[in-house]
Amino acid sequence: FQYRSIQGINDPDSLPDGIIRESDKKLKNTLDLINSLALEIASADIDVDIYSLMVNKVREITKAVAVTISVYDEESSEMNMRAVSTSSSILLTAKKVSGVDIEKLKFKVEPEIKKSMLKDVIAISDDLHEASLKSFSKPIAKLIQTGLRLKKFIGISFVHDRKLYGNTFIVLNDSSPPIDYELLAVIKAVGSQMMHRRSIENHLKEYE
Fold it and tell me: Which of 15, 73, 84, 113 has minimal CB crowding within 10 Å?
């Protein structure tokens, strides 16, 4: 599950399955929506749950079956789930099959994976076991993926000044439309700024 540079998938003839280049008009409408999200986040008070705000809006825009955000913990080298946007039936099914509460999921980020996340911004996989960094065993991942008809997992790392803050996963199924690569770049930029800002706010709050 290697992260790739968005610049490396700009060729319309070599875009991975699940990613497209939209028409200028449609893309402008989409980017207007994400820009409104950026403004909403920028004006949000520290008590506002900006992570839930982000996943709900990204899911609405992308028509994904699920969107998650995790925050990276430097000391433990773990990604800690902070927000999930999906249907309650999907959450219940995933928990029933795996025995894991997805909303409390943690997964280890090995040094090589962290290196690729810092260097590039996007990862695409059609394998939940791989996409979850092996948090789910292969049999469990296959049961979840088959039962919920999950098709594609797009991961975007949130990085600011060479520091990893977290990531988001956009989960697509058979009926999900493909996503424009420029939209992924904007989501990355908005999420990176959001997490950087919230990190500073939390740090300052500790000294109040």
Answer: 73
Which tokens go with 191?
């999420």
Using one digit for the tens of pLDDT, what is the confidence trace for 129-187?
A: 888 888 888 999 999 999 999 999 999 999 999 999 999 999 999 888 888 777 888 88
Compute the distance between CA of residue 185 and CA of residue 41 in angstroms, rounded to an integer: 17
CA–CA separation, 78 and 81 (whole Å): 10
Two tokens, residue 55:
């996943």
Strands, E, within the chain: which ranges? 19-20, 66-73, 78-85, 106-108, 122-125, 150-160, 163-173, 179-180
The upper half-sphere exposure of residue 15, i.e. CA atoms within 13 Å in the direction of its Cβ, equals 17
User: What is the full DSSP assignment across 74-110?
Assistant: TTTTEEEEEEEES-HHHHHHHHHHHS--GGG-EEE--
Each residue's pLDDT tens digit, 67-85: 999 999 999 999 999 999 9
How far is it, in rounded angstroms, from Cα 165 to Cα 98? 27
Q: Residue 45, SS3?
A: coil
